[in-house]
Amino acid sequence: MSLLEVEELRTGYGALPVLQGISFAVEEGTTAVVFGLNGAGKTTTINCLAGLLPVWGGEVRFDGQRLSGRSAKAIVEAGLSLAPEGRRVWAGLSVLKNLELGAWSRKDRRGTEETMQQVFGYFPRLEERKDQLAGTLSGGEQQMLAIGRAIMSRPRLLMIDEASLGLSPKLAQTVFEVVSKINDNGTTVIIVEQNVGVLPYADQALIMEKGTLTYDGSGSELERSGELRRTYLGEAVAS
Ligand SMILES: Nc1ncnc2c1ncn2[C@@H]1O[C@H](COP(=O)(O)OP(=O)(O)OP(=O)(O)O)[C@@H](O)[C@H]1O
Ligand SMILES: [Mg+2]
What is the pLDDT of residue 78? Predict the structure, then answer.
């Protein structure tokens, strides 16, 4: 059994359908990367998995349990956590407060403190700036905080939307390396990315196009296949 099983998932906004019935699975302990052009439905997919959008049809199972139809809160409690697109940190609150609030679903104070130290280990910059208001952090620091906050609930599956958007190549690399450490420590990861520099860290790669999945395979195969060039550069590839 895979940790996450998505079957014929459909959702959209109001009367507008976006996901046309997508199916994929993610194995425990792996990192999956979701590529695709702007508007392909990447954010819609992970927001729907996080319970922020209603499931119109199909099913989501996590560790064998049905998640579809559960509230966003119940989904965090089940072990899925999202670092949303656009680094939505609480601007008027300190770094520390943002991290503490990320742990709202936990009762174990000591364990929460340990996770906080772990986050500071991943991102020393956040510890240096723990009393600073999140809204005054640089874009890259806010991205670290969004990821750190998502880790605070100690998820089994961490989903990160646009991990490297707007980051310098060097900082993007740093974020990928941290994500890879988080993964090594046992957390399953789904990253939405446009930066193909993430590929060496990906066990599994998915490509979305217009609300459908057009590729689901290993990261290393994708690197060789030419599918990425076709998707992003519109190149014809011989198949
Ligand atoms: N709140 C919304 N209301 C109506 N339509 C929406 C809403 N959010 C997204 N859409 C539409 O759904 C489609 C998929 O959007 P989505 O945000 O999932 O794309 P994406 O793959 O994450 O793109 P990007 O790379 O630009 O972040 C787009 O056509 C978009 O216009
Ligand atoms: Mg998006």
Answer: 94
Distance 84 CA to ligand 2 centre (A): 9
- How much distance in Å is there from the Cα of 224 to the middle of ligand 1? 29
φ and ψ of 159, to 5 deg: -115, 130
> How many Å apart are CA 130 and CA 101, to the nearest integer?
14
- Phi, then psi, of 108 in degrees rounded to 5: -80, 100
Q: Whose CA is nearest to atom 26 of ligand 1?
A: 38
Structural domains in the chain, CATH included, are 1-79+156-239 (3.40.50.300), 87-154 (no CATH)
The pLDDT of 92-118, averaged and rounded, is: 92
Q: What was the pLDDT predicted at 9?
A: 97
Planar angle of CA 67, 70, 74, nearest 5 degrees:
95
Q: Do residues 49 and 220 make contact, with C-beta atoms less than 8 angstroms apart? A: no
